[in-house]
Amino acid sequence: MSDPSGWPVYDVEPIGAAPRASVAVYVHGGGWVNEITGQHWRLIARIARETGQRVVVPVHPLLPLGAARQVRDGVAELARVERDAGREVRLAGDSSGGQIALSAALKLRDDGVTIASTTLLSPALDLTWSNPRIDAVQPSDPWLGRPGGRVLAQAWRGEDELDDPAVSPLFGSMAGLGPLTILSGTRDVLNPDAHVLREKAQDAGVPVAWHEAEGQLHVYALLPTRAGEQGARVIVESLRPR
Predict the structure, then answer these.
(1) Whole-structure pTM value
(2) Cα separation of 189 and 174, whole Å?
(3) Which string of b and e fits 84-102 if b means at least 16 CB within 10 Å?
(4) Does residue 220 sit in helix, strand or coil?
(5) Is 68 strand, coil or helix?
(6) What is the pLDDT of residues 19-62, one digit of tens each?
(7) In degrees to the nearest 10, what's the CA dihedral of 214, 218, 223, 226?
């Protein structure tokens, strides 16, 4: 099927499950340049199987064809369509998909729509890369780095400023958001910004379930490790209809 923006959208449904009045929208990561992977699909299938609900997976435009505002608006509209159909909507995303998911949740909030919950795995939150604590984490992160991140950020921002919440959701107000679940590993250069998000959300009265994995890498819950299994269980539970 296609969403209102004309992108491919996949519906992943559990076999034999009764229809539920709820849906999870999962936005995959990949640094805004990489397509969805097998690790994503395995987690998505698990979410559908163990929560008994449909998972909607937009395959959004990547660089150089996509940009932050365009993709944020498309994901927000996809969630709005599901809500207007009477379904409770939860958002989730990893890495760059976490940036998109949180930016979409903020836009929906601004439009008067409160998402039931938003789950973020190792989210990209501040594309200015200005957090001074990144320097302390960088030597232990084998995957991500500030120089490359800044190049991608400049491309992804399109015509918006880097501190626009459509690009960097950390600069938005968190007031009025539904509950957040945040997973982050301590060997991830995005971990310092996850701490800032937790503090901002809590200060705004938003319930936050915080899961920091000591010694773990970026998107650790997608990895076939013991810590990855623990993280995947957290994600599934956070998206279970209440």
Answers:
(1) 0.97
(2) 22
(3) eeebbbbbbbbbbbbbbbb
(4) helix
(5) helix
(6) 778 999 999 999 999 999 999 999 999 999 999 999 999 999 99
(7) 0
